[in-house]
Design a protein that fits this description.
Shape: globular
Distance between the termini: 22 Å
Structural class: mainly alpha
Protein name: Uracil DNA glycosylase superfamily protein
Organism: Lederbergia lenta
Strand content: under 5%
Radius of gyration: 16 Å
Oligomer: single chain
Number of strands: 2
Number of helices: 3
């Protein structure tokens, strides 16, 4: 397991922890560079058999854009997983709503991973 963040380092906006929403990542050249240059390079250094779990809407938006640009393969992304922060009071309900889809994605990913191992 490798844990990382879209933006690896602590970010503070007006003295408060950056939540990924204000400003939007694309409204800051520094945040954009980390999200669209640094993060994809880190992911690229890992083997292709990763399961990327973007936590929250802001991160999911960036990762979806990276998928559309061809920088990350979609089958390796578990989209829809709610951010686990205590500030996300709806996380349990969000998880229950998407749980069947998340399970489907994980099974599909595992099957592709198993098939690639048997071909080697």
């Amino acid at each position: 397991m490798h844990t990382t963040s879209l933006i690896k380092y602590p970010v503070f906006i007006k003295g408060k922890n950056y939540t990924g929403h204000t400003p939007k990542i694309t409204q800051s050249s520094l945040l954009t560079e980390f999200a669209y240059q640094v993060f994809p390079k880190e992911i690229e250094e890992m083997k292709n058999d990763i399961l990327l779990i973007p936590l929250g809407k802001a991160v999911s938006e960036v990762v979806k854009k990276l998928v559309n640009q061809g920088n990350i393969t979609e089958y390796s992304c578990l989209f829809g997983f709610p951010h686990p922060s205590g500030a996300n009071g709806h996380r349990k309900r969000q998880f229950e709503m998407v749980k069947p889809e998340l399970q489907r994605i994980v099974k599909k990913y595992a099957n592709q991973f198993d098939q690639s191992k048997t071909k080697s």
